């Protein structure tokens, strides 16, 4: 392995963005830099975390911005109406249209849009408001970070750090904390499992892009070791949540399991590399067999008065489809064997194959 790859890549897939990061990008999750990160979370290459306190802070900031915008627009509209009152001084000038803004409605819609876009990334959410207060107040009275400066009252940061650190300890994980907030940086640095980093760009720069490492991964995946990956993926399919999205009336997936086709590699990204191990997030095509219980309406009659079907029988039909899932594969660097395989995809949408209805 090359010198560069000895310490290359992420120390963990888990990443948390502090409130000031969202504010820095105008609370706009469509920003190009944030989109790069969010696409990585959608592809299960890394896992985004957020707390209820962070969401509350974002919504408060959006409310403040909405008030500023509404006040500025409404003031401008009043001035515009005054100009329109004397528009006869300017022959041919068309009456301008103005629309006053309601700050409450504006804030509510902005918060709704932020939550909707955030939920698309399926972040892991932490109830930081429910963290026991004793540990936080102990830190406050001992003047530990984030309370180590005169007049420090960074209670939201303290609860967030405590919640994330507890989760990491319980899951035996580490987590990047992206922030430029000095108090949050100091607090995260005092923990064993939280890794402070200043910007999203700094986090994105950690990903491995080493041809030598990629060659090792390809060699392992092309070897009999792939049989271990396939076996463990098939064993973990029962953990998948399923949603039926087909056309059968009142359809519901009642059981699913591995299908008959082999698990095939589609693509992979190396997220960390060392002399000890490689961590790889791979996309694989997996055959899933599933049973759908549905209402067979072929014998039902239509009640034109109540506009409902009467009758019908519950039936079960079995289908098999191929779906693309994400997995995390840990490879032993020394002997190039498979150490761990974890299914990252949480839920999958299932429907009957198109060819069944040609």
Question: Which descriptors would you attach to this protein?
Answer:
disordered N terminus; five-stranded parallel beta sheet; six-stranded antiparallel beta sheet; 10 helices; single chain; 28% strand; flat; 358 residues; alpha/beta; 2 domains; Rossmann fold
Overview of this structure, please?
There is one protein chain. The chain is of the alpha/beta class and 358 residues long. It has 10 helices and 15 strands. The strands form 4 sheets. Strands 1, 8, 9, 10, 13 and 14 form a 6-stranded antiparallel sheet that branches. α3 crosses α4 and α5 packs across α6.
**Radius of gyration of CA atoms, rounded to a whole number:** 27 Å
Distance between the termini: 52 Å
Based on CA inertia axes, which overall geometry fits? Answer: flat
Question: What share of residues is helical?
Answer: 25-40%
How much of the polypeptide forms β-strand, as a percent range?
Answer: 25-35%
Which class of secondary structure composition applies to the elements? alpha/beta
Total strands: the figure is 15
Task: Let me know the largest β-sheet.
Answer: 6 strands, antiparallel
Element order: H for helix, E for strand: EEHHEHHEHHEHEHHHEEEEEEEEE
């Amino acid at each position: 392995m090359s010198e560069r790859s000895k310490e290359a890549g992420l120390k963990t897939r888990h990443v948390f963005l502090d409130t000031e990061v969202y504010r820095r990008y105008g609370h706009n999750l469509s920003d190009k830099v944030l989109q790069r990160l969010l696409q990585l979370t959608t592809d299960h290459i890394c896992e985004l975390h957020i707390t209820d306190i962070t969401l509350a802070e974002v919504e408060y900031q959006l409310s403040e911005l909405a008030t500023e915008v509404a006040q500025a627009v409404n003031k401008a509209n009043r001035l515009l109406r005054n100009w329109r009152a004397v528009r006869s001084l300017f022959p041919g000038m068309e009456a301008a249209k103005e629309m006053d803004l309601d700050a409450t409605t504006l804030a509510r819609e902005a918060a709704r849009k932020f939550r909707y876009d955030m939920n698309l990334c399926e972040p892991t959410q932490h109830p930081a408001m429910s963290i026991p207060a004793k540990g936080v107040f102990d830190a406050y009275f001992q003047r530990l970070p984030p309370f180590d400066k005169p007049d420090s009252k960074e209670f939201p940061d303290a609860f967030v750090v405590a919640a994330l650190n507890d989760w990491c300890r319980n899951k035996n994980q580490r987590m990047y904390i992206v922030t430029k907030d000095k108090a949050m940086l100091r607090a995260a640095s005092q923990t064993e499992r939280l890794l402070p980093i200043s910007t999203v760009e700094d986090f994105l720069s950690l990903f491995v892009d080493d041809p030598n490492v990629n060659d090792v991964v390809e060699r392992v995946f092309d070897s009999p070791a792939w049989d271990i990956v396939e076996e463990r993926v098939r064993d973990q399919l029962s953990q998948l949540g399923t949603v039926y999205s087909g056309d059968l009336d009142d359809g519901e997936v009642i059981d699913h399991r591995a299908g008959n086709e082999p698990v095939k590699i589609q693509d992979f990204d190396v997220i960390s590399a060392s002399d000890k191990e490689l961590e790889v997030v791979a996309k694989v095509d997996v055959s899933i067999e599933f049973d759908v219980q549905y209402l067979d309406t072929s014998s039902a009659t239509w009640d034109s008065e109540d506009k409902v079907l009467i009758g019908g029988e519950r039936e079960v039909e079995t289908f098999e489809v191929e779906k693309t899932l994400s997995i995390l594969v840990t490879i032993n660097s020394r002997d190039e064997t498979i150490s761990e395989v974890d299914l990252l995809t949480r839920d999958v949408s299932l429907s009957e194959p198109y060819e069944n209805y040609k």
